[in-house]
């Protein structure tokens, strides 16, 4: 069976796996973004606290993904829980680091002007600092998403959802007629999803970042 014949015969299952893969990454990125920005907001004013936040999230990233999921399985079980937990933790570093850099890079004179017209601290954060820090935050989200696309494939080790199941099935049946087709289909599917997500982020950037800030 050729690769194209394999795709034709398995397209329904591949589409289901691709949807589950994209959904897991998207939902984990939403959670990681919320947590990461909150951590940045709480720590960016202090060099010590910001360094601690960056170091802590960097430490998580040094743990091999297979080991991370293996450690989570006895705690949260198989399937979706270890996948979501691991992906969320891995997605924190680029977001926390870029959010801290972005918030620290806001022109202090703009913050002082907002304070001068009577804006409260939360209002300055929401209406001045975070919007100006959005470009680096979005860059962090893009980097984290590309990283999680690959890591999500490892979730199949713990019966997680996604295209990793196709890859693991192919690897476990090496030597069979469709083993290579399975690995190739899963791998190419992840690459296509990563490109689609990145294109979506480029569009979001064009819609949400003023031209002057982009330049």
Condensed summary:
With 215 residues, this protein is mainly α.
The proportion of strand residues reads under 5%
Average pLDDT level: 89
- List low-pLDDT spans: none
Total strands: the figure is 0
Q: What is the helix fraction of residues, given as a range? A: over 70%
Major β-sheet profile: none
Order of helices and strands: HHHHHHHHHH
The structural class is mainly alpha
Descriptive notes:
- With 215 residues, this protein is mostly helical.
- It has 10 helices and no strands.
- It has helices at residues 3-43, 47-62, 65-76, 80-90, 92-104, 108-116, 121-151, 164-172, 179-208, 211-214.
- Helix 2 packs antiparallel against helix 5 (92-104), helix 3 (65-76) crosses helix 4 and helix 5 runs antiparallel to helix 7 (121-151).
């Amino acid at each position: 069976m050729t690769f194209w014949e394999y795709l034709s015969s398995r397209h329904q299952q591949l589409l289901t796996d691709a949807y589950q893969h994209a959904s897991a990454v998207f939902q984990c990125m939403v959670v990681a973004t919320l947590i990461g920005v909150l951590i940045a907001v709480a720590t960016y004013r202090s060099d010590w606290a910001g360094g601690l936040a960056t170091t802590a999230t960097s430490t998580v990233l040094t743990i091999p993904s297979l080991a991370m999921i293996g450690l989570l399985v006895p705690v949260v079980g198989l399937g979706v829980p270890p996948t979501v937990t691991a992906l969320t933790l891995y997605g924190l570093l680029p977001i926390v680091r870029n959010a801290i850099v972005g918030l620290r890079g806001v022109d202090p004179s703009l913050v002082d002007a907002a304070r001068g017209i009577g804006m409260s601290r939360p209002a300055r954060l929401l209406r001045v600092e975070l919007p100006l820090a959005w470009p680096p935050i979005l860059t962090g989200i893009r980097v984290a998403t590309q990283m999680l696309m690959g890591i999500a494939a490892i979730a199949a080790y713990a019966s997680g959802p996604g295209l990793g199941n196709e890859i693991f099935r192919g690897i476990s049946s090496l030597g069979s007629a469709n083993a290579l087709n399975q690995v190739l289909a899963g791998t190419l599917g992840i690459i296509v999803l990563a490109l689609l997500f990145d294109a979506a982020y480029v569009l979001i950037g064009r819609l949400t970042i003023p031209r002057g800030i982009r330049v």
